[in-house]
Specification:
Layout lengths: L1 H25 L2 H32 L3 H31 L2 H37 L5
Helix pairs in contact: 1-2, 1-4, 2-3, 3-4
Length: 138
């Protein structure tokens, strides 16, 4: 249940970021609404595959330095994924490569900054729920 709530919350967070940025760039509620419906859903669908691939690469790293380099590369790759999706959605919505470029620069930065905070919040909530369910004598 907590996993489903977390995923819904991720979608809502993506939607909020997408709407605010699209509206700031275009001034159009219609284009912003399109971004809200399409862009976050694409990212939420692609992100688990991205995370699984990078988890395998991190697991295969044979020392701390390699693991750190892999983590840094993963974050750059995640930013690129978000940028590509943001560009594509805004380009399709507006027909403007300039608008797509602005969205590609702003949207992934916001998501890469906000979503780890979101995930930490949910991880803390999950730990608190688990602690409440455990008997106090254990």
């Amino acid at each position: 249940m907590i996993t489903a709530a977390k995923k819904v919350s991720q979608v809502v967070t993506h939607m909020g970021i997408a709407y605010v940025l699209a509206y700031a760039v275009t001034g159009s509620a219609v284009f912003s609404g399109l971004a809200v419906l399409v862009e976050p859903v694409i990212n939420v669908i692609l992100l688990p595959f991205h995370e699984a691939a990078w988890a395998r690469l991190r697991r295969d790293a044979d020392n701390a330095r390699s693991r750190l380099a892999t983590l840094a590369a993963e974050k750059l790759s995640q930013t690129g994924l978000h940028a590509g999706v943001a560009f594509g959605v805004m380009y399709v919505a507006t027909g403007s490569a300039a608008m797509g470029g602005i969205a590609a620069l702003l949207e992934p930065v916001c998501n890469v900054l906000v979503l780890p905070l979101h995930d930490r919040l949910w991880d803390g909530l999950e730990r608190n729920m688990q602690n409440r369910l455990l008997p106090s004598g254990i």
